[in-house]
Design brief:
Length: 255
């Protein structure tokens, strides 16, 4: 292959604009990184302006990426995020609802506020993002929405009644939205990661880590890049006949 042929090779997302919530670090950043390598321009919505600005620099600077402060629980801020993306790079073709928090505690000790916070960020935040993106994409007659659920939404985890409920809700929401938007050529799919090696999971107690590892047939945690690869598949035309699906990225855990 000649140098010119290499330069002309098309990326799977060439010319497309992607919006990613919680994009400053962890899975969100890994997804942004993968999208950029496939030709997309990305807009990162996050509450941490310093981390988001650093992520933009790492991704290649303002010609490729942009940072917008966004509280996903506030519908107007989500709409502003998508508007900013449109003004900067063009109307969003891809929306990844990834922003999330944990407030783990047993149901007996969990406060009402801890429950509401997790439901607000994960479930309402994903609804806000899906709804705002759909309003734009249905006019364009094209688009892909990727929602991050979790294995916790499939099996339920001790100490995560809030998180498990929110992540299960994202699956139901994604399927309902997929049915509403299919005739507009807008696809909605979800990903359920299992144990992925991030700063958050590596901070868990060793006993908890070992317990989770013992449940994984592949006998290793996943890497953020492995979730990003699935997000790329769902965001690209490789999955053009898929909507309302839930893809597990778990190493076979709880299959």
């Amino acid at each position: 292959m000649t140098g010119n042929e290499t330069e002309e090779k098309m990326g799977l997302l060439d010319g497309r604009t992607a919006v990613i919530t919680g994009g400053a670090q962890g899975l969100g950043y890994a997804i942004a990184e993968r999208f950029v390598t496939e030709g997309a321009r990305v807009v990162l919505g996050d509450l941490d302006p310093d981390a988001t600005a650093a992520a933009v620099d790492s991704l290649g600077g303002p010609e490729i990426a942009a940072a917008v402060r966004c509280d996903v629980t506030v519908a107007s801020e989500m709409e502003a995020l998508l508007d900013a993306a449109g003004q900067r790079f063009g109307p969003p073709d891809i929306m990844v609802n990834n922003a999330g928090i944990t407030r783990d505690a047993t149901m007996r000790t969990m406060s009402e506020d801890e429950f509401d916070q997790v439901i607000g960020v994960h479930l309402k935040g994903t609804w806000n993002g899906t709804r705002a993106a759909a309003a734009i994409m249905r006019e364009q007659k094209r688009g892909a929405i990727v929602n991050l659920s979790s294995l916790s939404g499939k099996v339920g985890m001790v100490g995560q009644t809030n998180y498990s409920a929110a992540k299960a809700g994202i699956v139901g929401m994604s399927k309902a939205a997929a049915k509403e938007l299919a005739h507009h050529n807008v696809r909605v799919n979800a990903i359920q990661p299992g144990l992925i090696r991030t700063a958050m999971t590596e901070a868990m107690p060793q006993r908890a880590w070992d317990q989770k590892m013992s449940e994984i047939p592949m006998q290793r945690p996943g890497e953020p890049s492995e979730v990003a690869g699935v997000a790329l598949f769902l965001a690209s035309d490789l999955s053009s006949y898929m909507t309302g699906t839930v893809l597990e990225v778990t190493g076979g855990r709880f299959m």
